[in-house]
Write a structure and sequence with these properties.
The chain is built from 6 helices and no strands. It is mainly alpha-helical. The chain crosses the membrane at residues 6-26, 38-62, 68-85, 105-126, 132-153, 162-180.
Amino acid sequence: MSPYEIVVLAFALAMDAVAVSLAEGLRLRRPSWRDALLIAGMFGLFQALMPVLGWALAFGFADEVSTATPWIAFGLLALIGGNMIKESFGEDEDHTTAVVTLRTVTPLAIATSIDAAAVGVTFGVLEVDVAPAVAVIGVITAVLSLGAVYLGARVGERLGSWAERVGGVILVLIGLRILLEHLL
C-alpha cells in the first residue's frame, strides 16, 4: 500500500469513531479538554491497536474471530445508544456533569475499531509496514474525533435533549450498519 492509500484508509476507518465522537459531544454539550482528549485519544489508540491485533491474527485464526466481531460491535453500540435514548427522555440534567472515564469510553473505542482488525488481516497479506500505517490511522482518528466532540457539543447546546436522542440513534445505526455489512 502506498502512503496515500494508507491516509485514505485511515480517514475511512475513522468515520465510525468520528460519528460516535459527535454523539458524545451531543451528550456532553460542554466537554472539558480532558474529556475531549480522553475520547479522541482512546479512539485513536484503539484504531491503531486493532489493525495490529488483526495483523497478528492473520497468521492464526482470523476466520473464527471475524464472524463474532460484527455481533460484538452491534451489541455494544446498540446497548450504549439505547441507554442514551432512554436517558434523553428523563429530566434535562446539567450535561456538563456527564462522566467521561476510561470505563465509559473503552467500550465505544472497541466497538468503533473492530473493523480496523480486518484491515490488519489485509496488512499481513499485503506485507504492509505495520508500524507507520497504524500510527497514521491512530493520529488521523484522534484528530478527527477531537474535532467531532466539539462540533457535537456546539450542536448539542442548541438541540437540548433531542441531541442526546440523535446521538443514541447514531450509535444504534452504526452498530446496525456493521452487523448488516457482515450479514449481507
